[in-house]
């Protein structure tokens, strides 16, 4: 199994631009999580899905952030418009039902200039 | 909200020595997990301990949980250079898979 796949690995963009981060979870995993990691705030859960349905989006910082999971093998996290304070590493993780271990992707390092 | 918090340590030890790091949290939990993160990589799950457990072992890892003190410790025995990483504890308060991560402990093992 290839593990959780994220793209792009690195993204540099200018303030005001739209950014879309992508995630392919491990096949058969029913849960998908989006996290953001910064030096100041550590690792924060943004949103998670179960069977493609958003369960808890209380960590999404503001309306500029949105996440979708149109099918079991794909999710996106979109920031529109992006701001410099959104610069962080964004991780996607997946997990099968009945387990507590989350499997993380390699992350997307986002830099907003 | 629940928050796992490690002692803000940066450990630097010699290969073969043991490394211990601690984590405290504020409210009751369903389980506590430890993850490792190598530089520039995603997190990797190491071990999970449930609220009704006091100690758990996995290879060279030993985790303890003291729910009365709301704290946990992770011990890595006979450390190796490959153990160099950041280690995070994460708490699951309700068994709903919503994890709260601590800030992490950086461990450097010198060959």
What does this protein look like?
Chain A has strands spanning 5-7, 10-13, 19-24, 31-38, 42-50, 53-56, 65-71, 74-79, 88-95, 103-104, 108-112. By secondary structure, chain A is mainly β. Chain A is globular. The mean pLDDT of chain A is 95. Chain B has no helices and eleven strands. In chain B, the strands form two sheets. In chain B, strands 2, 4, 5, 9, 10 and 11 form a six-stranded mixed beta sheet that branches. A five-stranded antiparallel beta sheet of chain B has the order 1-3-8-7-6, with no helix packed on it. In chain B, a hairpin with a 5-residue loop joins strand 4 and strand 5. The relative contact order of chain B is 0.34. The A-B interface holds A 4, 31, 33, 42-45, 48, 56, 91, 93, 95, 100-107 and B 31, 33, 35, 41-45, 48, 88, 92, 96-104.
Write the layout of secondary structure elements.
The complex is a heterodimer of chains A (about 110) and B (about 110).
Chain A: E1 5-7, E2 10-13, E3 19-24, E4 31-38, E5 42-50, E6 53-56, E7 65-71, E8 74-79, E9 88-95, E10 103-104, E11 108-112
Parallel strand pairs in A: 2-11
Antiparallel strand pairs in A: 1-3, 3-8, 4-5, 4-9, 5-6, 7-8, 9-10, 9-11
Chain B: E1 5-6, E2 10-14, E3 19-24, E4 31-37, E5 43-50, E6 55-58, E7 61-66, E8 71-76, E9 85-92, E10 99-101, E11 105-110
Parallel strand pairs in B: 2-11
Antiparallel strand pairs in B: 1-3, 3-8, 4-5, 4-9, 6-7, 7-8, 9-10, 9-11
């Amino acid at each position: 199994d290839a593990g959780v796949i994220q793209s792009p690995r690195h993204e540099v963009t200018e303030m005001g631009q739209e950014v879309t981060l992508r995630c392919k979870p491990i096949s058969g995993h029913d849960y998908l999580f989006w996290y953001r990691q910064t030096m100041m705030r550590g690792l924060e859960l943004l949103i998670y899905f179960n069977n493609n349905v958003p369960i808890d989006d209380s960590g999404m910082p503001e309306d500029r952030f949105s996440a979708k999971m149109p099918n079991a093998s794909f999710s996106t996290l979109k920031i529109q418009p992006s701001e410099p304070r959104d610069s962080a590493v964004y991780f996607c993780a997946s997990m099968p039902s009945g387990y507590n271990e989350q499997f993380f992707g390699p992350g997307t390092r986002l830099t907003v200039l | 909200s629940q928050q796992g918090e490690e002692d803000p340590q940066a450990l630097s030890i010699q290969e073969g020595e043991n490394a211990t790091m601690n984590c405290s949290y504020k409210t009751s939990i369903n389980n506590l997990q430890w993850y490792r993160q190598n530089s520039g990589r995603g997190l990797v799950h190491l071990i999970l301990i449930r609220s009704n457990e006091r100690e758990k072992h996995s290879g060279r890892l030993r985790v303890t949980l003291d729910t009365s003190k709301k704290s946990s410790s992770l011990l890595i025995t006979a450390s190796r250079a490959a153990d160099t990483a950041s280690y995070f504890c994460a708490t699951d308060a309700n068994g709903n898979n919503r994890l709260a991560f601590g800030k992490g402990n950086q461990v450097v093992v010198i060959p």
